[in-house]
Amino acid sequence: MRSRMDSSTEAGYGYVAGCLNTGYIAGFLRRRQVSAKGATFAVQQSNNVEHGLPVEVTERASIPPERDPIKVIGHFYGERLPSGERIAKFKAITLDRPSLREMPNHAAWFNDSAPEGTEAAADDFQPFFDPSDDEEVSSIFYKGDKKRGRPCLNVARLAGFIDAYGFARRADGSLNRSCLVIALRQTKNADEAIPIRLYGRFTEAFMKNISVAKPVFVEGFYRVRFAVTGTKEDGSEIREALPYIWCNNIKVATPREIVVQPDWWRELLAKRMADMKARADEAAAAVQAVDPAKDIPVDPSLA
Known about the structure:
Blueprint: E1 15-16, E2 19-35, E3 38-44, E4 53-57, E5 69-80, E6 86-96, H1 106-110, H2 119-122, H3 135-141, E7 154-169, E8 175-185, E9 194-199, H4 203-209, E10 215-231, E11 237-247, E12 251-252, H5 265-286
């Protein structure tokens, strides 16, 4: 693990394979597991422990006790699960104690409570008392922005090349045009592309302007979603936690964010050109317009 001094500037630790890749999160340490090979834990940022952010520590390090406040600086890596889904993995390079400004207040903590009867609702870890139990106290603590409060530190800054993209799909298979998913590639192995999910009213506009091999910069949040990815032998559903990067904007990358042009980028560009020719030939043969949502065949992992 790096020391706090070594990690004081992004230039000292902020790149993976020549592409900007930094993450900063803070919260309460949960589900701590330590072995000879390293450690894993989740950083809980709200009353819903199921939304705890998974962290891996691959080097020898002193891991704080369960439920302690913690700040983690690290890198994001992509991985494709056996189910075919892509996930983002967060590997720590620095562990530290967070400041008061980096931790949530009452409103932010209780804004993400889980439904009654779930594992998260049954969890007994409550670092804050719930002001909503008392109307007078609640009016003080929730004065102003009652809905959001002050959230924990959660920043993801990434640059790389688009490997695939498409609108997300709902459980019934229909396109969700309010969510654009891209696989952001930083290494030669395409299975290591990081899943980015863009939300907002401009998703269709972005769909028309992005393409495979395009260098982009994204600043967003590290989050966890859940999806049914299969069925067990007994017929019950397999529900997996799928960490990803949330954002509402995709920007053009600069030489400050991608400092080295990788050799495999030309292979990606060739793939893009071949796809464009194939689509043009297909469109001419069918004599019909190409739906922007199908402009590039959607990778099943981006559903």
